[in-house]
């Protein structure tokens, strides 16, 4: 009798197809949407707890808040609580979004500068003088500045007014 083949242990390797990638992305989108809905419901419960109607109502809200905030509670149970507390919570979320949504700033695609602009240059010195006369004047001022900025040396050297301590242990 021939020897038996060894069967591989564990699950077979997954073959990734484009459809599976799309399903994974859609699952991520569904999970993201659920967390957004869950946060909205939790926020609504917290707002309701600030303005209590009765003691029993507060207890129901606290129980629902605890369940929705729990990471161990099943998604189905959370959806049931959300549906029982708020009814069609998705429609209410849409209404809230419409009421509190700020309009995004609208930008124009093509903005043209006005074509009738005029550039006016103001003269600093008198306009009667020629350019050569102005440059000569600047040269003379430059020489005067060099003569005015001569430093004289002194015998005052900078010294620190303390003696360093030495360890005498």
Automatic annotation (TrEMBL):
InterPro entries: DUF4615
Protein name as annotated: Uncharacterized protein
Chain intervals for the UniProt region annotation (Disordered): 1-29, 50-74, 128-150
Biased composition, class Basic and acidic residues, residue ranges: 50-63, 128-148
Pfam families: DUF4615
Family from the record: Belongs to the UPF0488 family.
